[in-house]
Amino acid sequence: MRSEFRKLEQKIIQCRKCPRLVEWREKIAREKTRRFKSQEYWGRPVPAFGRPDAELVIIGLAPAAHGGNRTGRVFTGDRSGDWLYDALYQYGFANRPASIGLDDGLAMDNCLITAVVRCAPPDNKPLPEEVNACREYLRLELKLAIRKRVVVALGRIAFDAFIKIWRADGKRSLFPKPAFRHGGGWRLSEGLILISSYHPSQQNTQTGKLTRPMFHQIFALARNIISGN
């Protein structure tokens, strides 16, 4: 499983399926932003981070232009990542509360973090055809993550992508389609539980739509399920 997962992630890193995303991610990596001018940007699709044998799988939207597209790690180098890794640390899924870069010593404990789209999109808004083109990578990752017990979908796009994958693989426990909401939970077939959460984007956190207690509630629930409480 691990070797198959590594091969898949290498394939993802080399992907050039979406011309608009390729052009944008490489443009950002060349031009940079002033505060990171001295850094070398990743500028490629961003692979999943964590353990393919994890019981908790987290699905985000896409790398940020100066976050994952710069650092090469999903949810790293931006405010969304600050929220996510702090919560994961608080509930025992990470060995430290912050993710800075590939050599910072951060390690996941029983957790895999991935995304619907692997390249930074302009304005953080991938086009529907880009979501469709990238969804197969997520489907294969979920298939290889055979020990998963909890899937946390961060935001409506991640939620919808997971449901499309679940249905396409012949699962029948999501009819009719559940309505996305923060803190929603659904028991699926094969013992899997889906939890939905607002995405920790600045738009959500700065407006108070998503607060830290609300966000931590998601991972407290995941921890209780995995720990059997």
| Sequence stretches where pLDDT stays below 50 over 5 or more residues | none
| CA-atom Rg in angstroms | 17 Å
Residue share in helices? 40-55%
Order of helices and strands: HHEEHHEHEHEEHH
CATH fold topology: Uracil-DNA Glycosylase, subunit E
Describe this entry's structure for a reader.
Strands 1-3-2-4-6-5 form a six-stranded mixed β-sheet. It is of the alpha/beta class. The two termini are 29 Å apart. 40% of the residues lie in helices and 11% in strands. The protein has one domain: Uracil-DNA glycosylase-like domain (Uracil-DNA Glycosylase, subunit E). The chain has helices at residues 2-13, 19-31, 68-71, 79-90, 128-144, 156-168, 202-206, 212-227; strands spanning 49-50, 56-60, 111-115, 150-154, 185-187, 193-197.
